[in-house]
């Protein structure tokens, strides 16, 4: 690491190296001019020919060459001297012009500017003392994730190969400074400059739109920083299999993730809505949408996306008709040859009797064309649209599909959910195992309490470092239930706008949505969902002795030793129980 | 043969020889120490310094530092000369001459070190 860095530290030396020739020329020209001036006979003073000494000659040439020009010293020059001065003036002008020209061309030099940018980046990353994420690829997904991380108060370092995309980063205002580098993230050295091996690096997120690059990042992270979790995007099944083989922590495959979600919403719409509500972008609204109906489905385009969706529908035993340019009859599904953009192939696939259609080709225009035609033929059709490019967003918004799948957003959502709260993953896994009724009841309860806006999710551990006040009280043997704890620090008669989703005890014991009278124990880890304000209050209650005292007893604790002593005498023994 | 190496070696050795030429003689006798030689030694030493710029190796760094020492000493010597010849008013007294020459003696030592490094580097490469 040190050696690699040293290469970029020598910008000063690089400049000196480039300036070698002009500097030598300047020294030589100066020397010639000064030497000549001492040798040329001057005016006759007191019957003797005077000569300029080195001191005077150097003085004269110095101010002449720099175009200051104080005049002829110590005596008015002789004509021989003036002749030499003419020569020296032109010599020095050439010298300066050449030197300045070299300096300016050096400053405009691309490789030098890159070296300077690289040095600034490396320095900025090395000076990071807060935990940060290394995000490789600042595309649509990268921007969403950087936004979310920034809002969560986490630092980000960005590596992006495309200079124009990196330019957008400057226009975007983040609350914290984001060090960014324009380089190929597939190069392990670049990753090290980006802080992969930095002590404060808490994760690598590989989001480039090239699977090979993401794979390279995953391998580099696995070998160079095995303890740093890596989240890697993979659009091909082969890539994700490859990543799994060497133990990449999280593999983000947008199509696979969506097909899972679709399968879930086909057999458990409530659970799927609960998922959406919990994993959406914080602050955005979740629309109460139509659930995908069971019945005949048509899938247009049997590519990466289409294939996974067909698999998902097969597992839910939904009959599927596939429209593709190149049909590969397999005996299970009905295949129709065509591209689906024309009414003929749609009618042949039975669009009038179908309940849903998936427009899943890799062309946005084709997908929209299929969707519009199919809607005209069947108004009731449930439409799932695949949007490949963010630039076509307006078109997709204009067409009111039931679900629009944007791979970049699918990844961003999942990534943010994983990053923001590790405890969310076991909770979501548990939801998948619960039945539909339970999910519906939970969703109803949570949304009635917190609204349809995506809540903030946060986990909080009851230990000495993150919840000192609560931890000390619990260790003293006090009994504190969730109901007594989650009250507003401004007015304890009001409950906080948050809910406890999950409680994890140290000994592999956990509670789903613990009841209000659940007693806390030291070492518990709680998963909260709620408004940002409520979650900040929770953190305050857990950490601050005074707030906690007020929440539990309604008394304001006196601050300072003297007041504490006085208060103790007055109250005698403090009773911590709620009246 | 590498032209760059020839020029490099030439300037380093020339800086040392010119410096030596100025240094030899009675230390306080102005007649033994020609100011033109001091000028030449200073100019060649400056050029040798610039030639050493930008070398990233360890030996290059030592080269540069010895050269900078020589420059510093010679510039100091030139300043003392300029002061005694023009500012002090008494001209080149034996006392002042001794100062100038001893400063250039220090530069000579640095230049000798430079030459030794050059030789060591050449021997190390064995070709």
Automatic annotation (TrEMBL), chain A:
One Pfam family recorded for the sequence: TrkA_N
Keyword terms, alphabetized: Membrane, Transmembrane, Transmembrane helix
TM ranges: 21-40, 52-71, 83-108
GO cellular component: plasma membrane
Gene Ontology biological process terms in this record: potassium ion transport
GO molecular function, one term: monoatomic cation transmembrane transporter activity
Subcellular location(s) of the protein: Cell membrane
Membrane topology: Multi-pass membrane protein
Domain RCK N-terminal: 130-252
RCK C-terminal domain: residues covered: 462-544
Stored PANTHER family: POTASSIUM CHANNEL PROTEIN 2-RELATED-RELATED, VOLTAGE-GATED POTASSIUM CHANNEL KCH
Record's protein name: TrkA-N domain-containing protein
UniProtKB/TrEMBL annotation, chain B:
Domain of life of the organism encoding this protein: Bacteria
Protein name in UniProt: Uncharacterized protein
Transmembrane segments: 7-24, 36-54, 61-83, 103-124
Phylogenetic placement of the source organism: Bacteria, Pseudomonadati, Pseudomonadota, Betaproteobacteria, Rhodocyclales
Keywords on record: Membrane, Transmembrane, Transmembrane helix
């Amino acid at each position: 690491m040190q050696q690699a860095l040293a290469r970029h530290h020598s910008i000063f030396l690089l400049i000196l190296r480039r300036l070698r020739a002009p500097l030598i020329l300047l020294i030589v020209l100066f020397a010639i001019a000064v030497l000549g001036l001492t040798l040329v006979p001057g005016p006759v003073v007191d019957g003797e020919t005077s000569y300029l000494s080195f001191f005077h000659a150097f003085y004269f040439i110095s101010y002449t060459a720099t175009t200051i020009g104080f005049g002829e010293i110590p005596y008015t020059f002789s004509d021989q001297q003036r002749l030499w001065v003419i020569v020296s003036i032109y010599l020095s002008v050439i010298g300066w012009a050449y030197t300045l020209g070299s300096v300016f061309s050096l400053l405009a030099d691309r490789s030098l500017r890159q070296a300077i940018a690289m040095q600034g980046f490396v320095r900025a990353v090395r000076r990071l003392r807060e935990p940060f994420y290394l995000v490789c690829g600042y595309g649509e997904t990268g921007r969403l994730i950087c936004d979310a991380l920034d809002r969560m108060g986490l630092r980000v370092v960005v590596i992006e190969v495309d200079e124009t995309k990196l330019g957008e980063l400057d226009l975007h205002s983040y609350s914290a400074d984001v060090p960014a580098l324009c380089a190929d993230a597939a190069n392990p050295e670049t990753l090290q400059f980006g802080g992969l091996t930095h002590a404060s690096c808490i994760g690598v997120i590989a989001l480039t739109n090239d699977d090979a690059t993401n794979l390279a990042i995953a391998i580099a992270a696995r070998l160079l920083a095995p303890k740093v979790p890596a989240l890697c995007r993979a659009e091909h099944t082969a890539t994700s299999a490859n990543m799994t083989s060497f133990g990449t922590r999280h593999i983000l495959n947008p199509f696979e993730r969506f097909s899972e979600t679709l399968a879930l919403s086909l057999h458990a719409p409530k659970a799927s809505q609960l998922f959406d509500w919990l994993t959406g972008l914080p602050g955005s609204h979740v629309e109460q949408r139509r659930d995908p109906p069971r019945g005949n489905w048509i899938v247009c385009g049997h590519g990466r996306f289409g294939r996974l969706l067909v698999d998902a529908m097969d597992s839910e035993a939904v009959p599927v008709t596939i429209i593709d340019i190149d049909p590969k009859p397999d005996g299970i599904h009905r295949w129709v040859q065509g591209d689906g953009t024309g009414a003929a192939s749609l009618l042949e696939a039975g669009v009038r009797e179908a309940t849903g259609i998936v427009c899943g080709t890799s062309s946005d225009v084709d997908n929209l064309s299929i969707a519009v035609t199919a809607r005209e033929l069947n108004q009731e059709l449930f439409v799932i649209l695949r949007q490949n490019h963010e630039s076509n967003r307006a078109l997709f918004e204009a067409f009111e599909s039931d679900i629009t799948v944007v791979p970049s957003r699918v990844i961003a959502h999942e990534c943010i959910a994983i990053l923001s709260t590790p405890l969310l993953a076991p909770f979501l896994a548990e939801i998948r195992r619960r039945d539909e009724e339970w999910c519906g009841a939970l969703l109803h309860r949570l949304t009635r309490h917190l609204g349809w806006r995506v809540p903030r999710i946060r986990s909080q551990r009851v230990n000495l470092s993150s919840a000192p006040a609560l931890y000390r009280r619990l260790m003293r043997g006090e009994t504190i239930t969730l109901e007594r704890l989650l009250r507003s620090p401004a007015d304890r008669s009001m409950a906080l706008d948050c809910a406890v989703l999950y409680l994890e005890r140290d000994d592999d014991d956990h509670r789903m949505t613990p009841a209000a009278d659940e007693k806390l124990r030291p070492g518990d880890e709680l998963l909260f969902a709620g408004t940002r304000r409520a979650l900040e209050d929770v953190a305050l209650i857990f950490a601050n002795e005074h707030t906690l005292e007020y929440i539990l007893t309604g008394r304001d604790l006196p601050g300072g030793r003297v007041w504490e002593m006085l208060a103790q005498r007055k109250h005698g023994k403090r009773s911590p129980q709620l009246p | 043969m590498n032209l760059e190496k020839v020029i490099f070696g030439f300037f380093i050795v020339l800086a040392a020889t010119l410096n030596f030429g100025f240094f030899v003689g009675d230390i306080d006798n102005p007649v033994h120490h020609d100011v033109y030689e001091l000028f030449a030694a200073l100019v060649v030493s400056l050029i040798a310094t610039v030639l050493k710029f930008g070398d990233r190796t360890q030996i290059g760094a030592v080269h540069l530092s010895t050269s900078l020492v020589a420059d510093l000493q010679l510039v100091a010597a030139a300043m003392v000369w300029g002061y005694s010849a023009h500012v002090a008013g008494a001209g080149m007294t034996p006392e002042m001459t001794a100062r100038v020459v001893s400063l250039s003696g220090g530069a000579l030592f640095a230049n000798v070190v430079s030459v030794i490094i050059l030789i060591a580097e050449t021997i190390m490469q064995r070709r």
